[in-house]
């Protein structure tokens, strides 16, 4: 008896029917992730402070036949996070639900304890740790009720390896890494997946905003060659989200090939 051939074709829209929330979606990794998840079929809720940029990204998604909702807000403000999640649940085109939360928004800061700008310490922790943790906690509570869902936090290689360029910022990413793994252990029994993505050096607006310059950063990485584009991280995030439900890629670290450290 002849065996039947498997004629199933892998879908080019593996996230079809899902709604994804992406914070910090106005630029860099967040923008690339929002566009990539939309291309994979997800309806995308775009969140950041820069309205004009989000409107442009939403228009780009819609031109490709996708669905996008713009919600302006500060990822370090807890009331803004509440409003983000509430409006996502009211979005008819998104199915009045959300399936994926990408906690990407973050603040960089050049220097260590002695050399970083102390006036920015609190804001860095408010966005990178308090805001991200509050978002993940709120999303986890919702996903537990649904018995499914994905939470992805964007950390950093300097949240695993001390960096001479950004040790204070790195401490906030060490914190979020611990929180992500603790949350994963809490919610995995409910079918909820939690993942930490740790980018290496990605060329974007991040460096300028964080205060990096030739002396405190670029001279030290000149030997690394070609740096990552945000798309490399977006592709990694999309890949882990498209794994079977019983597969939780809990951590990935993505570096430029020439990045020896951190």
Low-confidence stretches: none
Global mean pLDDT: 93
Compute the number of helices: 8
From N to C, what is the helix and strand string? EHEHEHEHEHEHHHE
Q: What is the overall silhouette?
A: globular
What is the C-alpha radius of gyration, as a whole number of Å?
Answer: 19 Å
Alpha carbon gap, first and last residue:
58 Å
Q: Which structural category do the helix and sheet elements fall into?
A: alpha/beta
Q: Biggest sheet, open or closed, and with what strands and sense?
A: 7 strands, parallel
The portion of residues forming beta strands comes to 5-15%
The beta-strand count equals 7
Question: What share of residues is helical?
Answer: 40-55%
User: In which order are the strands of the major sheet placed?
Assistant: 3-2-1-4-5-6-7
Summarize the SSE layout with pairings.
Blueprint: E1 19-23, H1 28-39, E2 43-48, H2 51-63, E3 68-72, H3 78-90, E4 100-103, H4 121-146, E5 149-154, H5 167-187, E6 192-199, H6 206-210, H7 214-221, H8 230-241, E7 251-254
Parallel strand pairs: 1-2, 1-4, 2-3, 4-5, 5-6, 6-7
Helix pairs in contact: 1-8, 3-4, 4-5
Describe this protein's structure.
This protein has about 260 residues and is of the alpha/beta class. About 40% of the residues lie in helices and about 15% in strands. It is built from eight helices and seven strands, in the order βαβαβαβαβαβαααβ. A seven-stranded parallel beta sheet has the order 3-2-1-4-5-6-7, sandwiched between helices. Helix 4 links the parallel strand 4 and strand 5. Helix 4 packs parallel to helix 5 (about 165-185). The longest helix has 26 residues, at about 120-145. The chain is globular, with a radius of gyration of 19 Å. The N and C termini lie far apart (about 60 Å). The relative contact order is 0.14. The mean pLDDT is about 95.
């Amino acid at each position: 008896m002849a065996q039947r051939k498997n004629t199933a074709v892998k879908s080019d829209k593996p996230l079809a029917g899902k709604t994804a929330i992406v914070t910090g979606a106005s630029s860099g990794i967040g923008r690339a992730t929002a566009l990539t998840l939309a291309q994979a079929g997800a309806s995308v809720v775009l969140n950041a402070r820069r309205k004009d940029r989000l409107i442009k990204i939403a228009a780009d998604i819609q031109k490709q036949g996708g669905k996008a909702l713009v919600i302006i807000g500060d990822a370090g403000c807890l009331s803004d996070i509440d409003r983000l999640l509430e409006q996502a649940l009211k979005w008819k085109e998104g199915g009045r639900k959300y399936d994926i939360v990408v906690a990407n928004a973050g603040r960089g800061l050049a220097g260590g304890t002695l050399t970083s700008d102390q006036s920015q310490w609190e804001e860095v922790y408010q966005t990178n740790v308090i805001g991200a943790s509050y978002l993940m906690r709120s999303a986890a509570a919702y996903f537990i009720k649904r018995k499914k869902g994905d939470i992805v936090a964007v950390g950093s290689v300097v949240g695993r390896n001390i960096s001479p360029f950004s040790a204070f910022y790195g401490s906030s990413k060490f914190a979020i890494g611990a929180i992500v793994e603790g949350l994963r252990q809490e919610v995995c029994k409910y079918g909820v997946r939690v993942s930490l993505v740790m980018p290496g050096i990605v060329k974007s607006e991040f460096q300028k905003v964080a205060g990096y310059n030739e002396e405190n950063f670029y001279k030290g990485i000149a030997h690394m060659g070609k740096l990552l584009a945000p798309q490399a991280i977006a592709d990694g995030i999309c890949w882990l989200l498209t794994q079977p439900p019983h597969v939780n890629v809990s951590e990935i670290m993505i570096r430029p090939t020439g990045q020896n450290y951190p």
